[in-house]
Protein backbone atom coordinates (compact mmCIF):
# COMPACT_ATOMS: atom_id res chain seq x y z
CA UNK A 1 0.00 0.00 0.00
CA UNK A 2 1.47 3.36 -1.00
CA UNK A 3 2.26 6.07 1.50
CA UNK A 4 -0.38 8.31 -0.11
CA UNK A 5 -3.09 5.70 0.40
CA UNK A 6 -2.01 5.27 4.03
CA UNK A 7 -2.03 9.03 4.56
CA UNK A 8 -5.54 9.41 3.16
CA UNK A 9 -6.77 6.38 5.11
CA UNK A 10 -5.37 7.75 8.37
CA UNK A 11 -6.84 11.21 7.75
CA UNK A 12 -10.28 9.89 6.84
CA UNK A 13 -10.29 7.45 9.76
CA UNK A 14 -9.51 10.24 12.21
CA UNK A 15 -12.28 12.28 10.63
CA UNK A 16 -14.71 9.39 11.17
CA UNK A 17 -13.65 8.83 14.79
CA UNK A 18 -14.05 12.50 15.66
CA UNK A 19 -17.72 12.34 14.63
CA UNK A 20 -18.69 8.83 15.75
CA UNK A 21 -22.48 9.20 15.73
CA UNK A 22 -22.83 7.52 12.33
CA UNK A 23 -20.66 4.63 13.46
CA UNK A 24 -22.66 4.20 16.68
CA UNK A 25 -26.00 4.34 14.89
CA UNK A 26 -24.91 1.86 12.22
CA UNK A 27 -23.78 -0.61 14.87
CA UNK A 28 -26.65 -0.09 17.34
CA UNK A 29 -29.76 -0.30 15.17
CA UNK A 30 -29.21 -3.86 13.81
CA UNK A 31 -28.35 -5.11 17.31
CA UNK A 32 -31.51 -3.54 18.76
CA UNK A 33 -33.51 -5.16 15.96
CA UNK A 34 -31.98 -8.51 16.90
CA UNK A 35 -33.04 -8.05 20.51
CA UNK A 36 -36.55 -6.83 19.70
CA UNK A 37 -37.55 -9.19 16.89
CA UNK A 38 -35.13 -12.07 16.32
CA UNK A 39 -34.61 -13.25 19.90
CA UNK A 40 -38.35 -13.52 20.78
CA UNK A 41 -39.54 -15.01 17.48
CA UNK A 42 -36.61 -16.93 15.95
CA UNK A 43 -33.94 -17.10 18.63
CA UNK A 44 -34.52 -20.79 19.43
CA UNK A 45 -34.46 -21.93 15.79
CA UNK A 46 -30.80 -22.41 14.77
CA UNK A 47 -31.35 -21.99 11.03
CA UNK A 48 -33.75 -19.04 11.31
CA UNK A 49 -31.54 -17.31 13.87
CA UNK A 50 -28.46 -17.80 11.68
CA UNK A 51 -30.22 -16.40 8.62
CA UNK A 52 -31.54 -13.43 10.61
CA UNK A 53 -28.07 -12.72 11.95
CA UNK A 54 -26.61 -12.71 8.45
CA UNK A 55 -29.43 -10.43 7.23
CA UNK A 56 -28.96 -7.88 10.01
CA UNK A 57 -25.18 -7.91 9.66
CA UNK A 58 -25.68 -7.00 6.03
CA UNK A 59 -28.37 -4.46 6.96
CA UNK A 60 -25.94 -2.53 9.18
CA UNK A 61 -23.07 -2.79 6.72
CA UNK A 62 -25.27 -1.70 3.82
CA UNK A 63 -26.31 1.38 5.79
CA UNK A 64 -22.70 2.47 6.03
CA UNK A 65 -21.93 1.58 2.42
CA UNK A 66 -24.90 3.38 0.89
CA UNK A 67 -25.87 6.17 3.28
CA UNK A 68 -22.55 6.90 4.98
CA UNK A 69 -20.36 6.82 1.88
CA UNK A 70 -22.71 8.84 -0.33
CA UNK A 71 -23.05 11.60 2.28
CA UNK A 72 -19.29 11.70 2.92
CA UNK A 73 -18.48 11.96 -0.79
CA UNK A 74 -21.10 14.67 -1.34
CA UNK A 75 -19.82 16.65 1.66
CA UNK A 76 -16.24 16.33 0.43
CA UNK A 77 -17.20 17.90 -2.88
CA UNK A 78 -18.44 21.01 -1.06
CA UNK A 79 -15.20 21.53 0.88
CA UNK A 80 -12.51 23.78 -0.65
CA UNK A 81 -9.86 21.15 0.18
CA UNK A 82 -11.40 18.60 -2.19
CA UNK A 83 -11.03 20.54 -5.47
CA UNK A 84 -7.40 21.20 -4.56
CA UNK A 85 -6.74 17.49 -3.98
CA UNK A 86 -8.24 16.65 -7.35
CA UNK A 87 -5.77 18.95 -9.13
CA UNK A 88 -2.74 17.12 -7.68
CA UNK A 89 -0.77 14.73 -9.93
CA UNK A 90 -1.49 11.70 -7.70
CA UNK A 91 -5.01 11.50 -9.14
CA UNK A 92 -8.14 10.22 -7.40
CA UNK A 93 -6.89 6.70 -6.60
CA UNK A 94 -5.27 7.32 -3.16
CA UNK A 95 -8.29 9.18 -1.77
CA UNK A 96 -10.76 6.71 -3.30
CA UNK A 97 -8.84 3.80 -1.83
CA UNK A 98 -8.55 5.46 1.55
CA UNK A 99 -12.26 6.19 1.60
CA UNK A 100 -13.14 2.59 0.73
CA UNK A 101 -10.74 1.18 3.36
CA UNK A 102 -12.22 3.40 6.06
CA UNK A 103 -15.72 2.45 5.01
CA UNK A 104 -14.77 -1.24 5.23
CA UNK A 105 -13.45 -0.65 8.76
CA UNK A 106 -16.69 1.08 9.73
CA UNK A 107 -18.73 -1.77 8.30
CA UNK A 108 -16.64 -4.34 10.15
CA UNK A 109 -17.34 -2.55 13.42
CA UNK A 110 -21.07 -2.42 12.63
CA UNK A 111 -21.40 -6.22 12.44
CA UNK A 112 -19.76 -6.94 15.81
CA UNK A 113 -22.78 -6.11 18.06
CA UNK A 114 -25.04 -8.32 15.94
CA UNK A 115 -22.61 -11.22 16.21
CA UNK A 116 -22.36 -10.77 19.97
CA UNK A 117 -26.15 -10.70 20.43
CA UNK A 118 -26.57 -13.76 18.21
CA UNK A 119 -23.86 -15.71 20.02
CA UNK A 120 -25.13 -14.92 23.53
CA UNK A 121 -28.92 -14.85 23.17
CA UNK A 122 -29.85 -17.09 20.21
CA UNK A 123 -29.27 -20.61 18.94
CA UNK A 124 -27.55 -19.34 15.79
CA UNK A 125 -24.62 -21.55 14.92
CA UNK A 126 -21.75 -21.31 12.45
CA UNK A 127 -18.25 -22.69 12.03
CA UNK A 128 -15.22 -20.35 12.02
CA UNK A 129 -14.57 -21.18 8.36
CA UNK A 130 -18.14 -20.31 7.35
CA UNK A 131 -17.99 -17.12 9.40
CA UNK A 132 -14.84 -15.96 7.62
CA UNK A 133 -16.31 -16.91 4.25
CA UNK A 134 -19.50 -15.07 5.14
CA UNK A 135 -17.58 -11.91 6.06
CA UNK A 136 -15.71 -12.11 2.76
CA UNK A 137 -19.02 -12.47 0.90
CA UNK A 138 -20.42 -9.56 2.90
CA UNK A 139 -17.65 -7.22 1.79
CA UNK A 140 -17.87 -8.46 -1.79
CA UNK A 141 -21.63 -7.96 -1.78
CA UNK A 142 -21.25 -4.37 -0.62
CA UNK A 143 -19.39 -3.38 -3.80
CA UNK A 144 -22.53 -2.43 -5.80
CA UNK A 145 -23.83 -0.38 -2.87
CA UNK A 146 -20.55 1.51 -2.53
CA UNK A 147 -20.63 2.17 -6.28
CA UNK A 148 -24.21 3.38 -5.97
CA UNK A 149 -23.10 5.60 -3.09
CA UNK A 150 -20.36 7.10 -5.27
CA UNK A 151 -22.95 7.78 -7.97
CA UNK A 152 -25.19 9.60 -5.47
CA UNK A 153 -22.29 11.44 -3.83
CA UNK A 154 -21.00 12.82 -7.13
CA UNK A 155 -24.41 13.47 -8.69
CA UNK A 156 -26.18 15.53 -5.99
CA UNK A 157 -25.46 17.94 -3.16
CA UNK A 158 -24.77 16.84 0.42
CA UNK A 159 -28.29 17.71 1.60
CA UNK A 160 -29.84 15.84 -1.30
CA UNK A 161 -27.53 12.86 -0.72
CA UNK A 162 -28.94 12.44 2.80
CA UNK A 163 -32.47 12.18 1.46
CA UNK A 164 -31.73 10.15 -1.68
CA UNK A 165 -29.60 7.55 0.09
CA UNK A 166 -32.16 7.02 2.84
CA UNK A 167 -35.04 6.83 0.40
CA UNK A 168 -33.16 4.11 -1.49
CA UNK A 169 -31.83 2.25 1.54
CA UNK A 170 -35.00 1.24 3.35
CA UNK A 171 -36.97 0.03 0.30
CA UNK A 172 -33.93 -1.99 -0.82
CA UNK A 173 -33.62 -3.53 2.65
CA UNK A 174 -37.33 -4.43 2.78
CA UNK A 175 -37.47 -5.74 -0.78
CA UNK A 176 -34.28 -7.71 -0.19
CA UNK A 177 -35.82 -9.64 2.68
CA UNK A 178 -33.42 -8.28 5.29
CA UNK A 179 -36.07 -7.31 7.83
CA UNK A 180 -38.64 -10.03 7.16
CA UNK A 181 -38.04 -13.64 6.08
CA UNK A 182 -38.64 -14.09 2.33
CA UNK A 183 -41.31 -16.76 2.93
CA UNK A 184 -43.59 -14.31 4.75
CA UNK A 185 -43.16 -11.37 2.39
CA UNK A 186 -46.33 -10.13 0.64
CA UNK A 187 -46.81 -11.56 -2.84
CA UNK A 188 -45.91 -8.47 -4.82
CA UNK A 189 -42.74 -7.90 -2.77
CA UNK A 190 -41.76 -11.55 -3.14
CA UNK A 191 -42.11 -11.24 -6.92
CA UNK A 192 -39.86 -8.17 -7.13
CA UNK A 193 -37.38 -9.19 -4.42
CA UNK A 194 -35.04 -11.45 -6.50
CA UNK A 195 -34.35 -8.58 -8.90
CA UNK A 196 -32.99 -6.26 -6.20
CA UNK A 197 -29.27 -6.15 -5.33
CA UNK A 198 -29.94 -6.59 -1.60
CA UNK A 199 -31.70 -9.91 -2.17
CA UNK A 200 -28.76 -11.20 -4.20
CA UNK A 201 -26.32 -10.49 -1.38
CA UNK A 202 -28.73 -11.94 1.18
CA UNK A 203 -29.10 -15.15 -0.84
CA UNK A 204 -25.32 -15.49 -0.97
CA UNK A 205 -24.96 -14.93 2.78
CA UNK A 206 -27.77 -17.35 3.64
CA UNK A 207 -26.20 -20.02 1.46
CA UNK A 208 -22.81 -19.64 3.14
CA UNK A 209 -23.97 -19.29 6.75
CA UNK A 210 -27.14 -21.41 6.87
CA UNK A 211 -26.67 -23.85 3.99
CA UNK A 212 -29.66 -22.70 1.93
CA UNK A 213 -29.82 -22.98 -1.87
CA UNK A 214 -29.38 -19.52 -3.42
CA UNK A 215 -31.81 -18.20 -5.99
CA UNK A 216 -29.88 -18.00 -9.32
CA UNK A 217 -32.07 -15.12 -10.53
CA UNK A 218 -31.07 -13.05 -7.51
CA UNK A 219 -27.37 -13.77 -8.07
CA UNK A 220 -27.55 -12.80 -11.75
CA UNK A 221 -29.47 -9.64 -10.84
CA UNK A 222 -26.74 -8.76 -8.33
CA UNK A 223 -24.13 -8.97 -11.09
CA UNK A 224 -26.22 -6.80 -13.40
CA UNK A 225 -26.74 -4.19 -10.66
CA UNK A 226 -22.98 -4.11 -10.01
CA UNK A 227 -22.27 -3.29 -13.65
CA UNK A 228 -25.01 -0.63 -13.72
CA UNK A 229 -23.76 0.96 -10.49
CA UNK A 230 -20.17 1.00 -11.74
CA UNK A 231 -21.22 2.73 -14.96
CA UNK A 232 -23.28 5.25 -13.01
CA UNK A 233 -20.43 6.03 -10.59
CA UNK A 234 -17.97 6.54 -13.46
CA UNK A 235 -20.42 8.81 -15.30
CA UNK A 236 -21.14 10.90 -12.18
CA UNK A 237 -17.43 11.34 -11.43
CA UNK A 238 -16.62 12.44 -14.99
CA UNK A 239 -19.62 14.78 -14.99
CA UNK A 240 -18.56 16.37 -11.71
CA UNK A 241 -14.96 16.74 -12.87
CA UNK A 242 -16.07 18.31 -16.14
CA UNK A 243 -18.19 20.87 -14.32
CA UNK A 244 -15.44 21.85 -11.87
CA UNK A 245 -12.28 21.75 -13.95
CA UNK A 246 -13.22 22.25 -17.59
From TrEMBL:
- Record has Metal-binding as a keyword: no
Residue ranges annotated as transmembrane are 21-42, 48-69, 100-121, 133-156, 168-189, 217-237
- The signal peptide here is none
Q: Where is the ABC-2 type transporter transmembrane domain?
A: 9-196
Membrane topology term reads: Multi-pass membrane protein
**Annotated Pfam families:** ABC2_membrane (PF01061)
Keyword annotations for this protein, in alphabetical order, are: Antibiotic resistance, Membrane, Transmembrane, Transmembrane helix
Q: Does the keyword RNA-binding apply?
A: no
Q: State the compartments where it is located.
A: Membrane
Major location category of this protein: membrane
- Provide the protein name: ABC transporter permease
